[in-house]
Design goal:
single chain; alpha+beta; 7-stranded mixed β-sheet; two-stranded antiparallel ribbon
Length: about 300
């Protein structure tokens, strides 16, 4: 990692925290620090379960509990057991909480205006555009990619969303029972691997490879073997963050570690974004190497 990159990030963090008032114990001149104000806003947007709040804000459970107790003491929130499951704690704003949130929103608007006001029109446009870029990149940096057992609920979520999208985009529809999809044994180490991407503990993407040819468990699959990418999906909510390219790179690294030097995949003509992604990642189109009924393009890359 370049030292100048690290220093620029640190300078940026110092400037932002000072300019937005994050260092002040009374954020926006209210009687609470930024952490409490941020949590109040998150509750006001509809997040109600304590465990969801912890995941969305990436907070330690102990610290989150202290923040909630402070808001409760001020009469701004109520924490209670969920009706459907007493083990789940839910949070809701009181009438005073809604009033306080409205005031925080008003003062936040004033702070934003005070940041933009000294700048000319061109500078404002540059700043807002740069902020949008920084927001996307920071969000991308919060996405985690981890190997996951194919039977995990996060995998079911991803594959159900993936298959539903294919069914909607393919003119002929999509039936996973007809497709040559990878079964669990083929994408479980050492026969293969499945990765799941998560943002705030929510699954937002997946990708897998299976080693072919050769019987399951053969690592590497032999001098003529290859890794075949399967189940490549990224949630529409996070597209544009470079996650697809990142999943491919991670899968390629794992495949190379397993002794594989060739990666192949197939895709449908309707998935024009995927075709562009694979070409940008260095894959070249080849003749059909399988009989996948939903495939129109076949690609290969030498690692």
């Amino acid at each position: 990692m370049h030292a100048e990159w690290i220093e620029q990030v640190r300078r940026f963090n110092r400037t932002v925290t000072q300019r937005v008032g994050a260092l002040d114990d009374a954020f926006l001149s209210r009687d609470r620090p930024l952490g409490q104000a941020r949590l109040l806003w998150e509750i006001g947007t509809g997040a109600s379960e304590v465990r969801d709040l912890r995941a969305r804000l990436d907070l330690d459970s102990g610290y989150l509990s202290r923040l909630l107790r402070a808001l409760q003491a001020d009469g701004l929130v109520v924490v209670e057991a969920a009706d459907a499951d007493g083990r789940v704690r839910e949070v809701r704003l009181t009438a005073d909480g809604r009033t306080e949130l409205a005031e925080l929103d008003r003062r936040s608007d004033e702070l934003a205006a005070s940041i933009l006001q000294p700048l000319n029109e061109h500078q404002r446009d540059r700043l807002v555009t740069a902020m949008a870029d920084v927001e996307r990149l920071l969000t991308a940096s919060m996405v985690r990619i981890d190997p996951v057992d194919p039977g995990h609920p996060a995998v079911r979520h991803c594959l159900q969303a993936f298959f539903a999208e294919l069914a909607g985009r393919f003119e002929e529809g999509f039936d996973p029972g007809v497709s040559r999809t990878a079964d669990h044994t083929q994408i479980t180490p050492p026969a293969g691997l499945l990765l799941v991407a998560t943002l705030h503990d929510e699954p937002v993407g997946c990708g897998a490879f299976r080693l072919r040819p050769g019987p399951p468990g053969t690592v590497p699959p032999g001098p003529d073997g290859y890794a075949e990418l399967k189940h490549m999906w990224v949630s529409p909510a996070v597209r544009g963050l470079g996650l697809g390219r990142r999943l491919i790179a991670e899968l390629e690294a794992h495949a190379a570690a397993a002794g594989v030097r060739t990666v192949r995949l197939d895709t449908h003509r309707a998935l024009v974004e995927a075709v562009g992604l694979y070409k940008a990642a260095g894959y070249r189109e080849i003749d059909a190497y399988n009989d996948e009924p939903y495939a129109d393009h076949w690609f290969e890359k030498t690692l």
